[in-house]
Inverse folding.
């Protein structure tokens, strides 16, 4: 049987590795690195952009844009399926990297309660695992399961799928 | 053993002799980075006989060759070949088809030099083929970082010069390949991809240099055109489409640092006038998208700039609309053509702008002057043009702003997007792939710049104009009268198809969501022939001759903005604009 030689270069840089269980979350534009609390994410408002942070070394994992996260506070009673288990206090986290061509999913459709990629108009449903409602994206957005500890948002487990997009 | 098997065995033996390994062993090697995929084998005869491309050949190409994306420096997209005519085009048939192995939008013109074809595809790939047969000669693929910023994953083609092929890699790296082997000769970083600079255009080779610009207008870049040494890749000069303080034009920007993130991206190859050594490039819209966030004309966004290729100096400009608020990039450059107007011959430029106007301009060695402008699709933003300068009066009701939603036609994709026009000196007609009856709305919000992050500050909507009975068009305009001669309408599709005109009196173009490639009578617009291909066609068609036979080549491969528009059409007209199959292929046609 043929064995392929390992070819992927492991990313050891702690700022570039994907978020790990136990990481805290900080806003992308917060130089004070204040850990986000559930109360910082208002209900039914557009996504808050965030990075994960190694809590001990206070290293923000902003070394790769594939680590960029979106946080949303949704009505807990309307979460569907696995999303219920991944949410903490109604707050869900997803990669902001569109699975289509890697644009940042920056837009929010308030009437529909959907995430919207401005590049090629994919709509994702954050209540239901960021499944693709409409548009060219081939897959849901990978989710980042959360929990709450000491009134802080904490990463409960790594991304549910590899963060990647079409041309890569 | 038949001949083919013998040849295969010989190839394997050659491979073994050269590399001391077997194909099985090589499968155990890690991917060889930027090396071509084909094994190191004997160079095929057609490449051994490869004719180096000279400056003279680029200026006056042989009739059967297609050495740059629009074939000639004037940007005409015109083939002088006459075997395929309006009389026999109905007998066109596929000669060969080769899958590219990748999805997404295939926009590049196949470049043909003496029987060798070079095709750029999405996936950061260049394929060399025997033009008459489709036999693959080599394949080059340049890996991209997993976090590459590449919002439009396509290539609009390669350039050729000497024994090299020049390719603009998606991550803003310019690469020179050996035309005979596909191996990298040099690679030069043009700009930092992590800051939002990416490339999709075909390089221009002119004045002994290789010249590119970059995309990234959605990401707060500062657009530029840059020249590099053909032999080494060493940077020679760089000129920005947004001037710095102290440079002419900077006074059209607000005080402060906004010029640093002002947009004006460059993603379509410029045309060139060897007589003046000036090259004409189109520039993208300003950033962020809302004009009221950057008061002023914002030179040189949404303009054509004339660049002196000796120095990189800007020697003239024409801005199609100041202070853009509509996402109307004007990246596709004007064609260079002499036309008659009011009893005199004008040394001209003609531009079919995304803003929905057809612009007739005059060029000299020091300026670009306005001659005439008129809408070629529904346009509700300009109320008039200044008769001397061509500067449009804007209807404020149709100009979106920060917190101010407004609708406008044509849509943000424009009356014509990047797909190039063609011009036939025989019919004196300009052929335009247009989208009629489409409109957008848009509203802005404040936005803060962060490197590599979206920097548009706009939310957009899209709709079909009330009463519309079609969208896509091929329009033919007589350049000497300034009048439209014929229009072909696509009732159920937009048109994203670049156009080819030939001396045989045939106009070719794909562009439709029914995957068809079309041939029209150049004089009358009569549909002569159409053929359903593997995907939708948004690539530039070309024509070439090998061994005395004329062919027409085009890539089929739907994606990028054609897919985005189809998606949005299906939102506003559910079920009527289903997904178009994806998957790239190179198609070559000939008359039986």
């Amino acid at each position: 049987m043929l064995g392929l030689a390992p070819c992927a270069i492991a990313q050891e840089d702690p700022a570039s590795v994907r978020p790990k269980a136990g990481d805290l979350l900080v806003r992308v534009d917060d130089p004070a690195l204040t850990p986000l609390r559930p109360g910082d994410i208002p209900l039914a408002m557009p996504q808050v952009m965030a990075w994960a942070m190694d809590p001990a070394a206070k290293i923000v994992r902003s070394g790769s844009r594939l680590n960029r996260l979106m946080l949303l506070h949704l009505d807990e009673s309307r979460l569907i399926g696995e999303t219920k288990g991944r949410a903490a206090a109604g707050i869900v986290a997803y990669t902001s990297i569109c699975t289509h061509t890697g644009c940042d999913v920056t837009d929010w459709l308030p009437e529909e309660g959907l995430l919207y990629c401005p590049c090629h108009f994919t709509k994702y449903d954050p209540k239901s695992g960021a499944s693709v409602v409409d548009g060219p994206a081939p897959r849901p957005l990978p989710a980042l399961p959360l929990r709450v500890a000491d009134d802080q948002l904490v990463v409960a487990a790594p991304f549910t799928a590899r963060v990647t997009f079409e041309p890569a | 053993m038949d001949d083919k098997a013998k040849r295969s065995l010989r190839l394997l033996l050659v491979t073994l002799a050269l590399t001391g390994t077997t194909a099985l062993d090589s499968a155990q090697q890690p991917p060889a980075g930027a090396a071509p995929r084909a094994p190191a084998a004997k160079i095929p005869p057609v490449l051994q006989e490869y004719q180096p491309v000279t400056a003279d050949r680029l200026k006056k190409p042989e009739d059967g060759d297609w050495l740059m994306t629009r074939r000639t420096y004037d940007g005409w997209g015109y083939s002088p070949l006459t075997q395929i005519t309006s009389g026999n085009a109905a007998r066109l048939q596929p000669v060969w088809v080769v899958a590219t192995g990748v999805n997404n939008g295939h926009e590049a013109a196949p470049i043909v030099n003496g029987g060798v074809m070079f095709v750029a595809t999405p996936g950061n790939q260049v394929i060399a083929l025997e033009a008459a047969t489709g036999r693959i000669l080599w394949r080059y693929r340049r890996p991209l970082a997993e976090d590459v910023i590449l919002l439009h994953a396509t290539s609009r083609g390669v350039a050729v010069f000497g024994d090299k092929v020049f390719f603009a890699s998606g991550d803003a790296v310019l690469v020179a390949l050996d035309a005979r082997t596909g191996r990298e000769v040099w690679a030069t970083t043009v700009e930092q991809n992590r800051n939002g600079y990416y490339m999709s255009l075909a390089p221009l080779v002119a004045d002994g240099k290789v010249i590119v610009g970059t995309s990234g207008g959605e990401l707060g870049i500062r657009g530029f055109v840059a020249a590099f040494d053909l032999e080494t890749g060493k940077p020679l000069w760089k000129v920005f489409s947004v001037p710095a303080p102290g440079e002419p034009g900077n006074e059209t920007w607000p005080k402060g640092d906004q010029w640093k993130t002002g947009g004006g991206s460059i993603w379509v190859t410029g045309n060139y006038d060897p007589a003046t050594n000036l090259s004409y490039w189109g520039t993208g819209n300003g950033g962020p998208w809302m004009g009221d966030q950057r008061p002023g004309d914002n030179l040189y966004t949404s303009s054509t700039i004339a660049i002196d290729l000796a120095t990189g100096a800007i020697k003239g400009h024409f801005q199609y609309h100041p202070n853009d608020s509509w996402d109307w990039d004007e990246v596709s450059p004007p064609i260079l053509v002499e036309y008659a107007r009011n009893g005199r011959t004008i040394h001209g430029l003609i531009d079919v702008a995304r803003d929905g106007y057809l612009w007739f301009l005059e060029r000299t060695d020091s300026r670009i002057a306005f001659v005439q402008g008129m809408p070629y699709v529904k346009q509700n933003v300009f109320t008039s043009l200044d008769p001397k300068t061509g500067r449009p009066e804007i209807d404020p009701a149709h100009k979106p702003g920060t917190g101010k939603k407004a609708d406008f036609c044509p849509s943000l994709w424009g009356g014509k997007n990047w797909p190039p026009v063609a011009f036939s000196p025989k019919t004196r007609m300009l052929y335009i792939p247009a989208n009629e009856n489409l409109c957008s709305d848009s509203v802005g919000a404040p936005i803060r710049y962060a490197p590599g992050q979206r920097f548009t500050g706009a939310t957009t909507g899209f709709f079909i104009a009330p009463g519309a009975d079609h969208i896509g068009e091929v329009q033919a305009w007589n350049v000497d009268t300034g009048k439209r001669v014929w229009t072909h309408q696509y009732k159920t599709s937009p048109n994203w198809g670049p156009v080819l005109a030939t001396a045989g009196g045939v106009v070719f173009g794909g562009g439709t969501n029914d995957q068809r490639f079309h041939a029209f009578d150049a004089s009358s617009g009569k549909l002569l022939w159409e053929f359903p291909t593997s995907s939708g066609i948004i690539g530039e068609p070309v024509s070439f001759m090998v061994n005395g036979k004329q062919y027409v080549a085009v890539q089929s491969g739907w994606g990028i903005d054609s897919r985005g528009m189809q998606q949005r059409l299906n939102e506003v007209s559910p079920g009527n604009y289903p997904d178009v199959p994806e998957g790239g292929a190179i198609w070559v046609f000939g008359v039986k």
